Amino acid sequence: MDDFLPQFIETFVCFSFVFPGRLRGYLKYLADQPHIAAQERDDKMTEWMMKKWIEAGMDKVELATYDFYLSWPNQTNPNKVCVKILHC
Known about the structure:
Elements: H1 6-17, H2 20-31, H3 40-55
Protein backbone atom coordinates (compact mmCIF):
# COMPACT_ATOMS: atom_id res chain seq x y z
CA MET A 1 0.00 0.00 0.00
CA ASP A 2 3.00 2.31 0.38
CA ASP A 3 3.17 2.83 -3.38
CA PHE A 4 -0.27 4.51 -3.50
CA LEU A 5 0.53 8.18 -3.30
CA PRO A 6 -2.31 10.55 -2.42
CA GLN A 7 -1.65 12.53 -5.61
CA PHE A 8 -2.13 9.39 -7.73
CA ILE A 9 -5.42 8.56 -6.04
CA GLU A 10 -6.69 12.12 -6.47
CA THR A 11 -5.75 12.14 -10.17
CA PHE A 12 -7.29 8.72 -10.75
CA VAL A 13 -10.57 9.67 -9.08
CA CYS A 14 -10.84 13.13 -10.58
CA PHE A 15 -9.82 12.49 -14.16
CA SER A 16 -10.15 8.91 -15.26
CA PHE A 17 -12.99 7.16 -13.51
CA VAL A 18 -15.57 9.41 -11.87
CA PHE A 19 -17.83 11.09 -14.41
CA PRO A 20 -21.57 11.46 -13.68
CA GLY A 21 -22.65 9.73 -16.90
CA ARG A 22 -20.24 6.88 -16.37
CA LEU A 23 -21.32 6.44 -12.74
CA ARG A 24 -24.97 6.28 -13.80
CA GLY A 25 -24.13 3.47 -16.21
CA TYR A 26 -22.14 1.60 -13.58
CA LEU A 27 -24.92 1.89 -11.00
CA LYS A 28 -27.52 0.81 -13.55
CA TYR A 29 -25.49 -2.30 -14.36
CA LEU A 30 -24.80 -3.13 -10.70
CA ALA A 31 -28.43 -2.67 -9.61
CA ASP A 32 -30.03 -4.23 -12.69
CA GLN A 33 -30.38 -7.72 -11.20
CA PRO A 34 -30.10 -9.26 -7.73
CA HIS A 35 -26.63 -10.48 -6.81
CA ILE A 36 -26.34 -12.72 -3.80
CA ALA A 37 -22.79 -13.37 -2.65
CA ALA A 38 -21.13 -16.48 -4.11
CA GLN A 39 -23.73 -16.86 -6.86
CA GLU A 40 -23.20 -16.69 -10.64
CA ARG A 41 -24.34 -13.05 -11.02
CA ASP A 42 -21.97 -11.99 -8.23
CA ASP A 43 -19.05 -13.69 -10.02
CA LYS A 44 -19.92 -11.93 -13.28
CA MET A 45 -20.05 -8.57 -11.50
CA THR A 46 -16.67 -9.21 -9.89
CA GLU A 47 -15.10 -9.88 -13.28
CA TRP A 48 -16.82 -6.81 -14.75
CA MET A 49 -15.53 -4.56 -11.94
CA MET A 50 -11.99 -5.87 -12.35
CA LYS A 51 -12.15 -5.15 -16.09
CA LYS A 52 -13.44 -1.61 -15.48
CA TRP A 53 -10.66 -0.87 -12.98
CA ILE A 54 -8.02 -2.08 -15.44
CA GLU A 55 -9.62 0.00 -18.22
CA ALA A 56 -9.50 3.02 -15.88
CA GLY A 57 -5.72 2.69 -15.61
CA MET A 58 -5.00 0.65 -12.50
CA ASP A 59 -1.73 -1.18 -12.96
CA LYS A 60 -2.59 -4.17 -10.82
CA VAL A 61 -5.99 -5.58 -9.93
CA GLU A 62 -6.27 -8.73 -7.83
CA LEU A 63 -9.21 -10.74 -6.62
CA ALA A 64 -8.89 -11.87 -3.02
CA THR A 65 -10.82 -14.95 -1.95
CA TYR A 66 -11.94 -15.69 1.56
CA ASP A 67 -14.33 -17.90 3.51
CA PHE A 68 -17.49 -16.37 4.89
CA TYR A 69 -20.70 -17.32 6.60
CA LEU A 70 -23.85 -16.23 4.83
CA SER A 71 -27.44 -16.28 5.91
CA TRP A 72 -29.45 -17.33 2.84
CA PRO A 73 -32.98 -15.97 2.31
CA ASN A 74 -35.66 -18.17 3.82
CA GLN A 75 -39.32 -17.55 2.89
CA THR A 76 -40.70 -19.30 6.00
CA ASN A 77 -38.31 -17.62 8.46
CA PRO A 78 -37.23 -14.31 6.90
CA ASN A 79 -34.37 -12.23 8.22
CA LYS A 80 -35.30 -8.82 9.55
CA VAL A 81 -33.25 -5.67 9.57
CA CYS A 82 -34.20 -2.74 11.77
CA VAL A 83 -32.72 0.71 11.45
CA LYS A 84 -32.80 2.84 14.55
CA ILE A 85 -32.02 6.53 14.41
CA LEU A 86 -30.37 7.87 17.52
CA HIS A 87 -30.76 11.50 18.34
CA CYS A 88 -27.46 12.83 19.68
